[in-house]
Every structure is written in C-alpha cells, then in structure tokens.
Amino acid sequence: MIKIERTIDWDWVKKELCDKERIKPGSCGGAGDAVLAYSEEAMKKAASLVCPDHAAAKRKVLHIGEDYVELEGNIRFSGKRLPPYMNGASEICIFLVTIGSALEQEASTLMAKGDYLRGYLLDRVGSFAVESLAISAEKALRDAYAKEDKSVSIRMSPGYCDWPIEEQAALAKILDFSSIRVSLTERFMMKPKKTISAVVAVGAKGVFNSSRSQCGICDMKDCGYRRGNA
Q1: CATH number of the domain that residue 91 is part of
Q2: Number of domains composing the chain
Q3: Going by DSSP bridges, is the β-strand pair 75-78/68-71 parallel, antiparallel, or unpaired?
Q4: Are 163 and 214 within 8 A, CB to CB?
Q5: In contact, 118 and 69? CB cutoff 8 Å
Q6: Which of 4, 61, 132, 209 has the fewest C-beta atoms lying within 10 Å of its C-beta?
Q7: H helices present in the chain, as ranges
Q8: pLDDT one-digit tens code per residue, 63-102
Q9: Tens digit of pLDDT for each residue in 164-205?
Q10: Residue 16 is inside which H or E element, if any?
Q11: How far apart are the first and last CA of the chain?
C-alpha cells in the first residue's frame, strides 16, 4: 500500500495566483484592489469546496526500449522522450490526485451567470490547488523512497512532450481511477478536470536528480508552463 500526502499549500496557491495573474494591491488603482478582493474571495470559496483525494500504485520496469517502456502486467508506455527520462529505473510509481468536482461546478455556474471574473479566478485557484496536491504527493513519494536509499524522478504526465494523452488508458489499467471518483472521457481527458495523473521513475540512490525538470526533454521553449530549471 502506497501512502502519499493530500495536502494543499494554500499560501503557495495564493502566491501562484497573484504571480501568474499579476495581481498586486493598488497595481491598477481601484480596479486592481477589486481584483485582489475577488481573489481573496475565490481562495476562501475554494477552500470550502475542494475535496482532496489520491490513489497510487507501483509496477516493476521490465525493459526500456528506444521508444517504449515495458512494465510488469503487460503494460507498455510509448514515446521517444520517455525512455531517456526513465533510464535507470527499477520501478515506476503512478499517482492520481484530485480536488473533486464541486469547485469546477461552482466556477461554471458563475460563468454561466455572467460573473466571468469570479468564475475565472475560482477556476484558476482550483488549477493551482490540484497542482499543489501533485507537488505534495511527489515530495511524499521522494521522502518515502529516500528511506530505502532510492531516488525518484520529477513526475511526468500523459500529454507532456510526445507522451500521448491516450496513454491515460495505460495508467488506468494499473490504477483504478474510479476508486477516487475519477473517470476518463472518450478523448482520454479526466473528469473531474481538476485532476492530475502522473508517473515517477524510481531507481537506486543518485540515479535521479529531483531538481531535473521534465521540461528539459521537451522542445517547446516558449511554453508558458516551462520550468526555469529546464
């Protein structure tokens, strides 16, 4: 049984929201202060709506080819970027985190009523909240494996670089998404939307560097989500 954290760092969420949306007190006079007030409101509402949950599972790595990774249980991940990223792994750990559907439903309701700013800000807070959950889960896994003298890679998700979004189906074969009320659409998108699925590679101590970013193997240099250490 793999235990991971399901903690949201609300201070981090607020910082990300203000940084990404350039929200600063008095930055645009009265309008800027109004946006700041709406942001505070969105943070409070989000905290009352989220329902954090998670699931995790692990599988042994059997073989790493040129454009695939083969796992126990007749599972295969495809993509040329993935094998170099997992090189040296003895196993992988898959995890799934979600904040549930209540927040996105409320944000959609606000948008439908024409309250676009409140709806948008609430939706953005939800995105950062589930990202905070994923960061928390990744750190918990890294700490747990460190006690076994093992190292853990930065997480990777279907849809990153050339790892096809269709590979969500392979993750779902290993991990029962429905156990935390998450499902896949016909286009392999997750419901609720504020959900993150990810894989980390696990190897001997020193094999993986936690400061390495998955962005380092991606060619999209102008991506708005690109991490600075890539």
Answers
A1: 3.40.109.40
A2: 1
A3: antiparallel
A4: no
A5: no
A6: 209
A7: 10-21, 30-49, 82-86, 102-112, 116-146, 168-174
A8: 999 999 999 999 999 988 889 989 999 999 999 999 999 9
A9: 999 999 999 999 999 999 999 999 999 999 999 999 999 999
A10: helix 10-21
A11: 33
